[in-house]
């Protein structure tokens, strides 16, 4: 079982979109039994809230089912449990490491590094551009699957 946690600031835009997209890809590939996928926030601001309407709308537009989810904050035990903790931007990574007490096992990644890029996933909270976020997530997830294949995980 490959356990993946997507993390952003509030857990209502980027991380929930990433979680839903990953779940959809895994289902299309017939790999549901190999993965456990969830998402979380680095902040407490949106705890208990559903995904942002822009995330819901973009996923509906591209035919990807929304994974039922309520925002929650990442915990130190998440670091122990998940194999890959994937942040959306540099700020998230810094906060994830703070919550986890560091990254001694090398399990915290910035999503776009899987796409050979150091850039952050576009944050639609500030821009309202859910298309750019979707494009970044798609590129990062494609790279993540290539990474998993190259490392013998798939």
Tell me what you see in this structure.
With 154 residues, the protein is α/β, with parallel strands linked by helices. It has six helices and four strands. The protein has one domain (2-150): Rossmann fold (3-Layer(aba) Sandwich), CATH 3.40.50.2300. The chain has helices spanning 14-28, 53-61, 76-81, 90-100, 124-127, 130-150, and strands at residues 2-8, 35-41, 84-87, 108-110. Strands 2-1-3-4 form a four-stranded parallel sheet, with helices on both faces. Strand 1 (2-8), helix 1 (14-28) and strand 2 form a beta-alpha-beta unit. The longest helix has 21 residues, at 130-150.
> What is the CATH topology assignment?
Rossmann fold
The side-by-side strand order for the widest beta sheet comes to: 2-1-3-4
Number of contiguous helices: 6
Q: In percent, how helical is the residue content?
A: 40-55%
Count of spatially separate domains? 1
Report the span from N to C terminus. 11 Å
* Basic shape: globular
In brief, what are we looking at here?
The protein has 154 residues and is α/β, with parallel strands linked by helices. It contains 6 helices and 4 strands.
Topology diagram in text:
Elements: E1 2-8, H1 14-28, E2 35-41, H2 53-61, H3 76-81, E3 84-87, H4 90-100, E4 108-110, H5 124-127, H6 130-150
Parallel strand pairs: 1-2, 1-3, 3-4
Helix pairs in contact: 1-6
From the structure above, extract its key features.
154 residues; Rossmann fold; 43% helix; alpha/beta
